Structures are given as C-alpha cells and as structure tokens.
Amino acid sequence: MSKHTHSCEHCHHQSCARRVPIFSSLDDDELSWVSSLITTKKYSKGELIIMEGSNPESLIIVNKGKVKAFKDTQEGKEQILYIFTEGDFLGEKNLLSQQKATYNVETLEETHICLINKKDFQQLLREYPDISFKIMSELCNRLERLENTIENMGAKKIEARVSSVLLEFLDKYGKHHAKGTLVELPLSREGIASYIGVARETVSRKMSRLQDEGVIRVIGNKKVIILDKEALEREIQ
Amino acid sequence: MSKHTHSCEHCHHQSCARRVPIFSSLDDDELSWVSSLITTKKYSKGELIIMEGSNPESLIIVNKGKVKAFKDTQEGKEQILYIFTEGDFLGEKNLLSQQKATYNVETLEETHICLINKKDFQQLLREYPDISFKIMSELCNRLERLENTIENMGAKKIEARVSSVLLEFLDKYGKHHAKGTLVELPLSREGIASYIGVARETVSRKMSRLQDEGVIRVIGNKKVIILDKEALEREIQ
DNA sequence: CGGGCACTTGATAGTAATCAAGTCCGGTGG
DNA sequence: CCACCGGACTTGATTACTATCAAGTGCCCG
C-alpha cells in the first residue's frame, strides 16, 4: 500500500481525485499518490481565480462549486465561454501548450479547488498515458461544445440560442419536479446574455415568451421549471 | 535503418509524415515506420471527404490542398468551423472519443490526404507519448481559436469579424507584395459569410467599405491586398 | 463572343440593441 | 415586524443595423 493512504491531511483530497474523470483509470494506490500531490484552496462567490494574461503554474480541478470562464472585450462586453463545475479541470492550456491564460475565471458561488503542480502533472502524464487519453477525450468534448455554440451563434435564431442554454442547464443542473424539471440557473439574466451573445433585455423577452407559451415557468431570478422539454428541442431542431 | 526507408512506394509519404507537427519529435527510423502505415487518397475540388454522422476509421492528415469543415443547419444555412491545410489532422474525435463525425468536410481545391488506421494510430500514441503531447497542444490551439471566434461572434461588431477573417487569412495565406500583402482567399464571399455567421451581401458591403477607406484592395473574387494591416487590427482592438 | 455565376449595390422590412420607465424581491435598519 | 432601499429584472418605445429581396454588373470559361 502506498504510504500516503493513511495520511490524514490528504484524505479529503482523495475523494476529489477519485471523482475526477481524468483520473478514473487509476487504482487506489495511484489515487493516493495523486492525492498527495494535491493542495487545495477555497474561494467565496465572485472571486477572480485566473486573470487573462497571467501564467498559472498548476492544473486546477473544481472540487465544489461553479466558476465561469470569460473574456472582456474592448466594447465593454463580457463573453462567457465555459461554466466549470465539480470534476472539471482548467488551466491545461498553460501546462500543455506554453501559453498564458486567454480568459478570466471567476467563481459563481463558494468554490473549492484542487491544485496540481505543473511538474507533478507532467510526470503523471508520462507515467499514466491513460490520463492523456482522458484529457484528449475531454478536450474533444469541449471542442464539440464550442463548435455547437458557434453553430448556434452564427447560423441560428436567438430563440434557438435561448433554448439551447436552457437545455444545457437542464442537463447539468436539472432536478426532477412535479410538473417538469426544476433548474437552478447558474447565471443571472445578464450572465446568460453574455453566454449566448445577446442583450440582457432580449433574454428576458424570450424567456417571457417561452413562459407565455407554457414551455417554461420562471420562478424568481434563479429558478426555472422546464415544462415542455420537447418544445425547446423543436426550437433548436 | 528501418527496412522501410528504401521502400519506394512509401517515399512520397515520408515527406508527409515529416511535415506534420504531431510527428515532429520522431527520428528518421520512426518516421519511416509511420510512413509505412500511411495510405493516401486524392480528391478533386468540391468532394465530400467526411459526412456528418459517419464514422471514419482513420486519422486524416492533409498533405496538399485545403478543406473546409462545416455544419448544415435546418434553416438551410451552413456554418463553417475550420479550414484545414497542409499538415493539419482531422478525424481525431472519432479516434480519441468514440464519437461519430459531428461535421462535414469538403475539399476547397484539389487535395491529397494521408490516412492512418485507427489501430495503428492508437499504437503510435502508446509507443510515443510525445505524439499525445503534440496532439493535446494542437487541440488546445483549436480551442483557443474557437474561443476567439465565439468572442467575435458574440461580443463584437460585424466590422471586427470581417477584419478578423482577413487577418487570419493574411497569417495563413499572405504573400509579400509591393504595397502590402497579397492574400488568396480560400473561400468565396458566401464561404466567408458562413464562416463568420452573416449574410453574403454583408461581407460584400463591409469589404467595399474597407476598400473605400484604403485599408484593402479587392482583386476579383479571390484575391485581396491588405494595404493597412494596423487598421484591421484597430477594428478588432 | 456569349452565357452563367458570383459578386455588388440599392431598397425595404424585420429584429434586436439601446434607451427609459417601472416592478419585484431580498436585505437592512429603524 | 415593518418600511425603506437598492439591485436585478421586465416591459415598452425608439433607433440602428443587418437580412432579405431585387436589380444590375463584371468576370471567367467555354
């Protein structure tokens, strides 16, 4: 057994490593070793974790909470690119290519992260090629999501973009509910707007319309019940 | 020396393998071996290489020519996602994740491609981890390009999108010229339009305006001289 | 030289951004 | 506990921009 298995100060990390898809091919001993490499950090809501142009020296894994990755444009707008949640990793660009961060990352709620040092991470990759495969696979998934986003933004009506986001949030954050699926929105109206590239008023209007049509039910600013998932899927086609 | 080094039927492939960034860490012997795994194929302009939903069983490397990767929407529009040129690989999604093709790929001119069988490719990855690193690095680059595209489409004016494309083409296809840089456009106006997500008439108008302002000079339908690169960069900011 | 196709240019209409009030809700302090 | 305050959201009116529709125009190729 690894000498790290019973190291109490790392016990709470192991669950982190165990939950992360990129380490899913490792056995208990290996996970213990990985856990020993991890340090943790906690952030409260609204803190900036990574700043565009900086040079993070570690792989970051989200252990609890949510963060948004976004770019600031000179026109004063904000374009949200990703929302990362439990199990997602980030900062890989700085470790795999030799690049500076190309976007900001900010917490959307209280968030705990795990950090793996650049050298340790690179050693892991060499020792366990399966981790590389997992990462490549995840990078392909991200590419696919971005490709779909581009298709939405370039070739589809705004109705379709709103429906897409709602379905995406439904998949990620939906919970069963009497008449449909209850979704806790990770973003404000303004956040949704800068995620799909429209004005915040437009999001309000489209969501109001969807409510009038009986497709969704809006509960305050942070919750939505999806009553008719198929209708949303029809909007996207 | 590898027994393949003097195998004439593979000589013309070796240059392909040698030119490809993902194999740049291999030595001559290893390259010869890779070359022996490669088969080639030629396409004329306008042929469909990959169809959305199909399941390509090989990694494809562009050896000569250009191809476009695009999605067809139900609204009848086409969204172009990538233009791949000499040295670029594609089809990785089907080999790294277990996914079907999520976009169509069509040649923009006469194109020669190299094919590496799925099993051979996976063996290569296991034997030479550096190839995995190169691929991860390239995937990160693609992510970054898509992230920038999304920023353009979501948060920037159309002027900026046109300027972005022109600068992108300038980087990839520009050649020195008396008064600026001559760029052979890989896409028609309609192609450019579906690359940046606007109507083809809008591309015409914006380019006319840029010509009136003395920033570019349009020569027929397929060439442009960039006279004032800085002006384009200012449009993007 | 003629035909066709891609492109340009102009006119119009539709849609979303912007500007501008309100409204709702949660939190705070009296 | 209630009243007030501020921030986020909704809704309405107007403006600006681009898509669409509709003629031309020019260029390439046979």
From TrEMBL, chains A, B:
<dbReference type="GO" id="GO:0003700">
    <property type="term" value="F:DNA-binding transcription factor activity"/>
</dbReference>
<dbReference type="InterPro" id="IPR036390">
    <property type="entry name" value="WH_DNA-bd_sf"/>
</dbReference>
<dbReference type="InterPro" id="IPR012318">
    <property type="entry name" value="HTH_CRP"/>
</dbReference>
<dbReference type="InterPro" id="IPR000595">
    <property type="entry name" value="cNMP-bd_dom"/>
</dbReference>
<feature type="coiled-coil region">
    <location>
        <begin position="136"/>
        <end position="163"/>
    </location>
</feature>
<keyword id="KW-0804">Transcription</keyword>
<feature type="domain" description="Cyclic nucleotide-binding">
    <location>
        <begin position="22"/>
        <end position="142"/>
    </location>
</feature>
<keyword id="KW-0805">Transcription regulation</keyword>
<dbReference type="InterPro" id="IPR018490">
    <property type="entry name" value="cNMP-bd_dom_sf"/>
</dbReference>
<dbReference type="Pfam" id="PF00027">
    <property type="entry name" value="cNMP_binding"/>
</dbReference>
<feature type="domain" description="HTH crp-type">
    <location>
        <begin position="156"/>
        <end position="230"/>
    </location>
</feature>
<keyword id="KW-0238">DNA-binding</keyword>
<dbReference type="GO" id="GO:0005829">
    <property type="term" value="C:cytosol"/>
</dbReference>
<dbReference type="GO" id="GO:0003677">
    <property type="term" value="F:DNA binding"/>
</dbReference>
<keyword id="KW-0175">Coiled coil</keyword>
<protein>
    <submittedName>
        <fullName>Crp/Fnr family transcriptional regulator</fullName>
    </submittedName>
</protein>
<dbReference type="InterPro" id="IPR018335">
    <property type="entry name" value="Tscrpt_reg_HTH_Crp-type_CS"/>
</dbReference>
<dbReference type="InterPro" id="IPR014710">
    <property type="entry name" value="RmlC-like_jellyroll"/>
</dbReference>
<dbReference type="Pfam" id="PF13545">
    <property type="entry name" value="HTH_Crp_2"/>
</dbReference>
<dbReference type="InterPro" id="IPR036388">
    <property type="entry name" value="WH-like_DNA-bd_sf"/>
</dbReference>
<dbReference type="InterPro" id="IPR050397">
    <property type="entry name" value="Env_Response_Regulators"/>
</dbReference>
